[in-house]
What we know:
Layout: E1 5-13, E2 19-26, E3 33-40, H1 47-52, H2 55-60, E4 64-69, H3 86-98, E5 103-112, H4 114-125, E6 130-136, E7 148-149, E8 152-153, H5 155-173, H6 178-193, H7 209-214, H8 220-226, E9 247-254, H9 258-270, E10 275-283, E11 290-291, E12 294-295, H10 311-322, E13 336-340, E14 345-349, E15 358-365, E16 369-371, E17 382-386, H11 413-416, E18 422-425, E19 433-447, E20 452-461, E21 467-477, E22 486-499, E23 504-510, E24 536-543, E25 546-547, E26 549-555
Parallel strand pairs: 3-4, 3-5, 5-6, 6-9, 9-10, 10-13
Antiparallel strand pairs: 1-2, 2-4, 7-8, 11-12, 13-14, 15-16, 15-26, 17-24, 18-23, 19-22, 19-24, 19-26, 20-21, 20-23, 24-25
Helix pairs in contact: 3-4, 5-6
Amino acid sequence: xxxxxxxxxxxxxxxxxxxxxxxxxxxxxxxxxxxxxxxxxxxxxxxxxxxxxxxxxxxxxxxxxxxxxxxxxxxxxxxxxxxxxxxxxxxxxxxxxxxxxxxxxxxxxxxxxxxxxxxxxxxxxxxxxxxxxxxxxxxxxxxxxxxxxxxxxxxxxxxxxxxxxxxxxxxxxxxxxxxxxxxxxxxxxxxxxxxxxxxxxxxxxxxxxxxxxxxxxxxxxxxxxxxxxxxxxxxxxxxxxxxxxxxxxxxxxxxxxxxxxxxxxxxxxxxxxxxxxxxxxxxxxxxxxxxxxxxxxxxxxxxxxxxxxxxxxxxxxxxxxxxxxxxxxxxxxxxxxxxxxxxxxxxxxxxxxxxxxxxxxxxxxxxxxxxxxxxxxxxxxxxxxxxxxxxxxxxxxxxxxxxxxxxxxxxxxxxxxxxxxxxxxxxxxxxxxxxxxxxxxxxxxxxxxxxxxxxxxxxxxxxxxxxxxxxxxxxxxxxxxxxxxxxxxxxxxxxxxxxxxxxxxxxxxxxxxxxxxxxxxxxxxxxxxxxxxxxxxxxxxxxxxxxxxxxxxxxxx
Length: 557
């Protein structure tokens, strides 16, 4: 099994005549072998491709591996148009891969992020040879983490991703004009390097000027509003019933698509499919054991998995059962493996969400208190001013921005020292409190303008007083009645953490988290054209009739 044969740039003709190219890795011998397929826009021979699926390791396990550049990328023909062609190209490629010499006719797909999404699109197209998919850190609804979140634009990821993807597009566009190519690439790199030094702040955010300067594709957010039917090419949510095959899904508590991974899993389970879920303490691009400021212990590392062996090995074992000659999976089976932060342990479950978790209210109170007891009738609101030209800086979280902005749990002292950030904290806990599940904050709030944002963040304050973020969320209010209190629910997505005895639970409330999310300029003007800003006067209510609170899924015992 050591005599692996590698064939590069193997052509596959799509239904419209466009040729996509793949590298094919065949184990030694005559086969036939099950096929593992990965379709990605980042370059089939890059370190990223091989980090997600090591083709040599998989070939040694008896799989034929196919790594394909998607349409308009690197060795493949066609125009780069993000998301648009992945369903049809996925179908055609699966059928082509299943018919390659040495294939046993069964195909599985694996990949992360965009090439996690190419799996879902292929599965929705229903090629008969596709038997299993293993998407990692992939979204479900693009308006819940990819294009927007709570109505705010995901500027932090959209800007650098579009610019980085633009390099290959410019190389194709100016292939016959070296002088223009050098100038174009230089300008793009300058804009990419300058994002954190003011570039993120270009307006209007909804029609980002940098993309227009380089002739790059517009925001998916923009096109989806103009062509609602087009958004289907990027949306898995609401279509899971159409996918009739087993899935092995991997996510992280600090990943930009945390909730998408969980939503995809629960939808597949609800549809009666075999579904496996692994959730580590990881970010989008880091599956090691040190995330942000926290060392979660070597057991958290994807290479170890708490003595279960490397994650890649668990995935290949699963593929052996779904497309190889291993024992087939039963329809309703599938493991749930969660990393519980705080105690830093892996735990096996049979479900998500956990039915034993109990939604528990912690109320915002005067003097920065956070208590299980509800507020009294006469408590006065808290106030702060939100200036879009001086927004709260992104400090940790489930994010993927330029390298100046680290994801994960980070010290929040500078954020919490700002006058436009309200902080509410419990007394030191008498015993451990486990929070596993979806977190939300209910705010009764008012602004003096026609539109604003509300941002909430859950934090863990250790015995030394260091506050680190756990999870957060945003909601954009587009049609506010100035001065009128209204109820708003901020979805903080999901987590699993034990707040240890002696620690304190903290909630931050503010109106910005920039540049992760674009700034609401408080004028009510559409994001596509808004360039003028105003300062908003904000009020947060916490009285008996308007009990602002965080709702935590507490696991008893």
